[in-house]
From TrEMBL:
Record InterPro entries: CRAL-TRIO_dom, Spectrin_SESTD1
Superkingdom assignment: Eukaryota
Protein's name in the database: SESD1 protein
SUPFAM superfamilies registered for this protein in UniProt: Spectrin repeat (SSF46966)
Domain CRAL-TRIO residues, every copy: 1-142
Keyword tags: Repeat
Record-linked Gene3D superfamilies: 1.20.58.60
Any one Gene Ontology molecular-function term assigned to this protein's record: phosphatidylinositol-3,5-bisphosphate binding
Similarity-based family: Belongs to the SOLO family.
Length: 685
């Protein structure tokens, strides 16, 4: 293994020192030659002019290898080498070198060769310029130097290549036409290495070179850098300056290219959006002009419109993104692109807003159509329900149910009126929107489509108006019929009530009209009251008869058979006959009582000093006969035409009335006896 180092030390002539350590293993002369050529290429010409001192460390090698190396130096660097110091092993080569003396070969070799022990090397080179291997004090780390050298050479190679690439890119961007400039940039746009990485490597390398420290100087001992390192610093600085300059231009080229690419991409996307909205998007809307003829049809059109809106939404999202990108570019403030960007933004906004307005208009139109058809359907259902109600024959149970049905009918008719009014409002609103539809037609004649829609809307409203008018006519007829039925039920109810009232009068006549009076005057008053009572009953009977006659007329008008009048008339006549019989019996009793009381009171009130007044004893017999007849009548029930019987009052009431008559008859009998006694005494005297 060949290990060659340049320690950085200098000889007394300020020439550089090269150290060639040899080892026991086989040394490749070709590799050694290449390595020497490389090392000798590092110093500057000025340094080379001062010559080299070469230290060949042969302490671990064989003599023939050392001799070969020394002879090779003659072929590789004869002019640059001024002194070759062969470090020999202690007393090993003394006998072998007698046949070959390097000092005799100085003229042929071109440089002086000396054999020296390691501890005597300081005679030729200062200890401070020798490493510790040769008894010197020079601090040197070969691996550190090698690593730095590799970094330097890598940086030099990469930066030089990068400079060529950047120059090609930058120079290509300065060509005359835009087409040539873009073609040149496209071919060499990306450098083979990252400029940032190369610049960072160069800065780190320059920093280390300027610090003048190596890994081997960590102990605090510092040393002056070699000439090759001093030479490397300006090289690195020059490369860095060139790189920064070219990289700055490259960044500007990239920025311009990126801006142009971004602008072209934006322009391309803008045209994609505009072309789609003005092409397929507008065509979709052009084919959608109908409003449907029912709720289901309008909903289907709405669903189709939602699909169209969904497709538009994707492009509107692209529009929002593009608008943001354009706004960002406008904020950047590049004067050369402002006009073009604003034109793109305006074009994109105009098309998108126009298309969005069309979508919104179409959506509002379909929503209005759906509401119109919904109101029309509700109104149609209301009319169907009202018509169904009118087509069913009315068979209510009583007047209250008729009133309830009539109220429900009026409510339905009012609801239909409100529904028709709402339909007209919705229809007019829809017609107004359709009249504005032509403004979105993009030059297309939509008169036919609009006429169909207008005819449909007007046809629906006219049909609903006719149906509503027919229902109103039927409602008028039904209302009249139901009012007649209400009147019929009212007449029947009132007639039944008259029967009840007459029954109550009959009952009152039998149960409460019992007294016959205590004297003729009272009896006459009772008789007068009875006649009035009979007049009330007569009025009630006549009222019931009139009501029943009205029910007959109403039934004939309604063409129906009353369910209650057929029973009410017989009941009314039966009760009236019973009342008439009872009333006549009551009148007869009262008239008999008046005759009885009048006759009895006349006799009882006459003075006894006028006996001529009592000459006719037949009066007493007549009064007695009337009283007995009255008493007999009080015990007889009232017999009705149907054979049934009823008594006036209770037996106790009749007994009380009879007792009063008997007492009066006793008074009359006593009066008769008093009159007879004077007649009996007169003949005797």
């Amino acid at each position: 293994l060949l290990f060659l180092s340049g320690t950085g030390g200098k000889d007394r002539r300020s020439g550089l020192i090269l150290t060639i350590p040899l080892c026991l293993e086989q040394t490749s002369m070709d590799e050694l030659s290449v390595t020497l050529d490389y090392l000798l290429s590092i110093p500057s010409e000025k340094c080379k002019a001062r010559g080299f001192t070469v230290i060949v460390d042969g302490r671990k090698s064989q003599w023939n290898v050392v001799k070969t190396v020394v002879l090779m130096l003659q072929n590789v660097v004869p002019a640059e080498v001024s002194l070759v110091c062969v470090v020999k092993p202690d007393e090993f080569w003394d006998k072998k070198v007698t046949h070959f003396c390097f000092w005799k070969e100085k003229d042929r070799l071109g440089f002086e060769v000396i054999l020296v022990s390691a501890n005597k090397l300081t005679r030729y080179i200062e200890p401070c310029q020798l490493t510790e291997d040769f008894g010197g004090t020079l601090t040197y780390d070969h691996m550190d130097w090698l690593n730095k050298r590799l970094v330097f050479e890598k940086f030099t190679k990469e930066s030089t290549s990068l400079l060529d690439e950047l120059a090609l890119i930058n120079n290509g961007s300065d060509k005359g036409t835009q087409q040539e400039r873009e073609r040149s940039i496209d071919l060499n746009f990306l450098p083979s290495v990252d400029p940032e990485t190369v610049l960072q490597t160069g800065h780190e390398l320059l920093s280390e070179l300027q610090q003048r420290r190596f890994n081997g100087s960590e102990g605090g001992v510092s040393w002056s850098p070699m000439d090759d390192e001093l030479l490397a610093q300006p090289q690195v600085m020059k490369l860095l300056d060139s790189l920064r300059e070219q990289y700055t231009r490259y960044q500007e080229v990239c920025r311009q290219r990126s801006k142009r690419t971004q602008l072209e991409e934006i322009q391309q996307k803008v045209m994609q959006v505009v072309n789609w909205l003005e092409g397929p998007g507008s065509e979709q809307l052009r084919t959608q002009w109908g409003i449907g003829d029912s709720i289901r049809a309008s909903q289907a059109l709405q669903q189709k419109h939602e699909e169209i809106e969904s497709q538009h939404s994707e492009w509107f999202a692209v529009y929002v993104e593009l608008n943001q990108q354009i706004a960002a570019l406008l904020n950047a403030g590049d004067e050369e692109d402002l006009v073009e960007l604003k034109a793109l933004q305006q074009q994109l906004s105009d098309v998108c807003y126009r298309q969005a307005s069309q979508l919104e208009f179409r959506q509002n139109l379909l929503q209005a159509a759906l509401e119109f058809h919904s109101v029309a359907q509700d109104l149609s259902q209301q009319l169907d329900g009202l018509l169904g109600m009118l087509c069913v024959d009315v068979a209510p149970a009583d007047g209250a149910s008729i009133q309830q049905t009539l109220k429900l009918l009026e409510e339905k008719l009012k609801s239909v009126d409100l529904g028709l009014q709402g339909l007209r409002e919705k229809g007019q609103s829809l017609l107004d929107q359709i009249s504005n539809q032509a403004s979105w037609a993009y030059g297309k004649d939509v008169t036919i489509e609009n006429k169909e829609n207008v005819d449909h809307i007007q046809g629906v409203m006219e049909d609903m108006q006719l149906r509503k008018q027919r229902c109103e006519d039927m409602v008028d007829v039904r209302r009249l019929k139901m009012l007649q039925m209400v009147q019929l039920f009212k007449c029947e109810e009132d007639a039944a009530q008259a029967v009840e009232w007459l029954s109550e009068l009959l009952d009152a006549l039998l149960k409460t009209h019992i007294r016959l009076g205590d004297d003729a005057q009272e009896t006459k008053v009772l008789l007068e009251k009875h006649r009035k009572f009979v007049d009330v009953a007569q009025s009630t009977y006549d009222y019931g008869r009139q009501l029943l006659q009205a029910t007959v007329v109403l039934c004939q008008s309604l063409r129906c058979t009353s369910r209650s009048s057929g029973d009410t008339l017989p009941r009314l006549n039966r009760v009236w006959k019973q009342f008439t019989v009872t009333s006549e019996e009551r009148v007869h009793r009262l008239e008999t009582a008046v005759a009885f009381h009048s006759a009895a009171e006349k006799i009882l009130q006459e003075c006894p000093e006028q006996p001529e007044a009592f000459n006719d004893m037949d009066q007493f017999d007549e009064i007695e006969a009337v009283g007995k007849s009255l008493l007999d009548r009080l015990t007889v029930p009232v017999v009705y035409p149907d054979g049934s019987e009823q008594y006036f009052g209770s037996p106790s009431d009749m007994a009380s009335a009879a007792e009063h008559i008997r007492e009066k008859m006793k008074l009359v009998s006593l009066k008769k006896q008093q009159l007879r006694q004077p007649e009996a005494t007169t003949p005797e005297s």
